[in-house]
Design a protein that fits this description.
By secondary structure, this protein is α+β, with helices and mostly antiparallel strands. It has three domains: 79 residues, Uridine Diphospho-n-acetylenolpyruvylglucosamine Reductase, domain 2; 108 residues, Uridine Diphospho-n-acetylenolpyruvylglucosamine Reductase, domain 3 (2-Layer Sandwich); 27 residues, no CATH class. The chain contains five helices and 15 strands. It has a five-stranded antiparallel β-sheet. It has a four-stranded mixed β-sheet with strand order 1-2-4-3, covered by helices on one side. A two-stranded antiparallel ribbon has the order 7-13. It is globular, with a radius of gyration of 19 Å. It comes from Candidatus Falkowbacteria bacterium RIFOXYC2_FULL_48_21. This is FAD-binding PCMH-type domain-containing protein. GO terms for molecular function: FAD binding; UDP-N-acetylmuramate dehydrogenase activity.
């Protein structure tokens, strides 16, 4: 089966690869088969190979917010790695496996603004769009132009969704409700910015703040908080609220 996968995907496929090396919790047993991809063509081939050979598979991004059992994964693990970025005007097209923070920093260096609030959120671009990750009242979905997904139906195909079709809401998206879709590429629409050094300094200041308040050198889920929205008539929660939201940590 390993040789069949390698022939269909065109990449080396490892056997019994320990997954603890790829998760922020630093736990996880072996993957029966394991392949690394760094562009959407490779990802498509890997997914199609698994479907055609009827092998169970999962797509693993940055490895945050993931729990993998000690027994591992009895199937193919497709590990996403950072890929190329394409800029056309104010549109930036990014592979889903690209690290969110690195992409945002590079975008700022290239003179684009808008996503700085998410520059220190762990994970990949695909994962961030899947969950509409965000901070300080903003979500990455606010700046999405379109999303390309691999659709697994009777056949494996591609579909491009405009922002309006993505169903972005607070930590929500249409991708959460369609388990047979895999985000392969995201196009962001960003504004041109002249104060590059100022933006980078703000990102660095936020990172230093996190270093002082969070044990980033220890295994963890990564980032998994979701504030609970509540109605104004719940006065007993008023003292806990911050701008109309109830911190999940209070529970």
């Amino acid at each position: 089966m390993q040789k069949q996968l390698e022939k269909l995907i065109g990449l080396p496929v490892l056997v019994d690869e320990p997954l603890k090396k790829y998760t922020t919790f630093k736990i996880g047993g072996p993957a029966k088969f394991f392949v690394v991809v760094n562009n959407k063509a490779q990802l498509f081939k890997a997914v199609k190979a698994a479907v055609d050979l009827k092998i169970p598979f999962i797509v693993l991004g940055g490895g945050s917010n993931v729990l993998i059992a000690d027994k591992g994964i009895d199937g193919l693990v497709i590990k996403l790695e950072p890929g190329e970025t394409e800029i056309k005007g104010n549109r930036i097209k990014v592979f889903a496996g690209s690290l969110l923070g690195h992409f945002i920093r590079e975008a700022v260096k290239s003179g684009f603004a808008g996503l700085e609030f998410a520059a220190n959120i762990p994970g990949t671009v695909g994962g961030a769009v899947f969950g509409n990750a965000g901070a300080y009242g903003h979500g990455v979905g606010d700046f999405v132009d379109e999303v390309e997904v691999i659709v697994i139906d009777r056949e494996v195909g591609l579909r491009v969704l405009a922002k309006e079709e993505c169903g972005f809401a607070y930590r929500e998206s249409v991708f959460k409700r369609n388990k047979n879709w895999i985000i392969s590429e995201v196009t962001f629409a960003l504004a041109k910015e002249v104060s590059v050094e100022e933006k980078l300094a703000a990102i660095d200041a936020e990172w230093k703040k996190r270093l002082c308040s969070q044990p980033l050198d220890l295994p963890s889920a990564g980032c998994s908080f979701k504030n609970l929205l509540y109605s104004n008539d719940l006065n007993r929660f008023e003292s806990w609220a911050v701008k109309g939201k109830l911190p999940a940590a209070k529970f």
